[in-house]
Amino acid sequence: PIPHPQTPLNPTRIILLIMLPLIAELLVSCCDCPEATTEFYASQFLEIDHLDNSGSDAIITNGPSVPKEAYGIQIRLGLEKVACNQSTKTHFISTSYAFSCDCPPSEIIPRDSVVDLQIFTENDFDEFHLANSNVSEYFKIFTGSNYVTIQDILPNLSRIYYYEYESVVTTDLLLMTAPTLNDNHSFKVVMTLSDGRIFESTTTSIVLN
Fold first, then answer.
1. Which band of pLDDT confidence, cut at 50, 70 and 90, is reported for residue 91?
2. Which terminus of the chain is less hemmed in, N or C, by CB atoms within 10 Å?
3. Radius of gyration of the chain from Cα atoms?
4. Residue in 146, 26, 44, 136 with CA at minimum distance from that of residue 89
């Protein structure tokens, strides 16, 4: 086949391509954008409570009992900012920020991440899960449209925030399989972080009837 001759680039187009990043930064400076910052947060504590999911919404309960088909555990992971680094503007800022006149967002990045979350029963739960057994598989999280496993939600516990962050991240773990042994139950939640720290918290005893 005969090759087609290539059309030479227009010199004006070449100049525009070279100048585009500079034009973008000029437009951003006209918007008077503050310098974007990078901040960091770290996990500080773990708190848990019993949940009663027998109504229209799951609620924290301090009562003596909960229907065993409606039990859950709420976990609350406390976060706290630990450092702030001021970044500098570059000469090649994204044109998406420039042409929309939106300032680059400040990022709040996790220093650590949740790598594992497990739930252990303190009492005999069923014939396959006696006291001190791992029953994490029996708990799910409702996302609004479907139920997901504990492992599925781990990335949400250590995500990047923009502008503002949550000082406490709350997750409701719903028991999907009712116990068949005993009436009194308590559970231990063990959270492992990427920096090696481990948070543990145990619920009070409650009757699941």
1. very low
2. N
3. 26
4. 26
